[in-house]
Amino acid sequence: MQSSLRYTCSLLLSTTRRPARLFASTSSSFQAAGTPWFVDPTPEPSPRYGQRPLPPHVQLQHGASALLPVPDDAPDVLKSLHSELAKSPHLDLAQLTVSPAILPPPGPPLPLRAPHGRRKRGGTYAGESAFDSMGGGIWDWVVIAQVKEGTENRGAIDSVVRLVRKTLLTREPPVPLAPKSRHARGTEWVLIDAGSFAIHILSKASRERYFNQVSW
Predict the structure, then answer these.
(1) Region (Disordered) spans which residues (predicted)?
(2) What is the mean pLDDT of the chain?
C-alpha cells in the first residue's frame, strides 16, 4: 500500500515539474534575448492603429490651407489677435477672416418727403453725415470670428469673447476697450469695439443672415 502511494506521489511530482522546467527554459531564453517572457516577440499590428481621424479643430490647425492669411498691411495687433484666435477650439477656422472694412452697397434712396403734422414727423431727410465726406465707415478693419455650428448656445461665444479681451488688454500698450457688458445667454452675435477695428463673434446663422451682403 505504501509502495503504491509513493509511486503515485512520484508520478504527480514528475508531471508538475515538467511544465515548470519548460516555463523556466522559455523565460530564460526570452530574458537572454532582452525581451520579457510575457511580451509577444512578434506582435501583430492592429489594423486600426493610426487610422483614427483627428478631431475637426485639430485637422484645421494642422491644415494650413484651411486658415485664411492675414493681409500684409494689417496692424500688428490684428496679426497677434489672429494667431491667438487660431488656437481656439471653438472657432471655425475656415471662416476666421481679417479684412479692411467694406461698406455694403447702399439700398434705394427713400422718396424725399418733408415732415408734416403738428409734431413734424414723417420726414425722410436726416441731414448730412460726417462719414459721407470721409468715404468710409466707422472702423478701418473688421475681424469675423464664427463659432462652430451648434456651439453658440454652449458657451463658445463667451469663451471667444474672454480670449479676445484678454489678448487685447494684456498687450503693451493695451487696447482700450469698453467695460464688459452682460449679454444674455444664448446671444448669437457679440460685437467688440476696439476703436479703429471691430471684432464680430457670431454664429453661422447670424453670419448668413446679417453679413450676406459683404464678401468678408
Answers:
(1) 100-122
(2) 77
**Burial state string for 158-178 with b = 16 or more CB within 10 A and e = fewer than 16:** bbbbebbbebbeeeeeebeee
Per mean pLDDT, which range of 16-25, 86-95, 176-185 is the poorest?
16-25
Question: 173: cis peptide before it, omega within 30°?
Answer: yes
What letter represents residue 71's amino acid? P
CA atoms of 194 and 19, how far apart (whole Å): 79
Residues 6 or more apart whose Cβ sits within 8 Å of residue 77: 168, 171, 175, 197
Write down the pTM of the prediction: 0.61
| 3-state percent helix, strand, coil for the chain, nearest multiple of 5 | 35, 10, 50
Query: Rounded to whole angstroms, how far apart are CA atoms 165 and 112?
Result: 44
Taking the C-alpha atoms of residue 162 and residue 201, their distance in angstroms, rounded to an integer, is 11
Gap between the Cα atoms of 201 and 143, Å rounded: 8
CA 208/CA 189 separation, integer angstroms:
12
Instruction: Return the SS3 of 178.
Output: coil
Higher pLDDT, 40 or 75: 75
- Angle value at C-alpha 73, between 69 and 78, nearest 5 degrees: 65
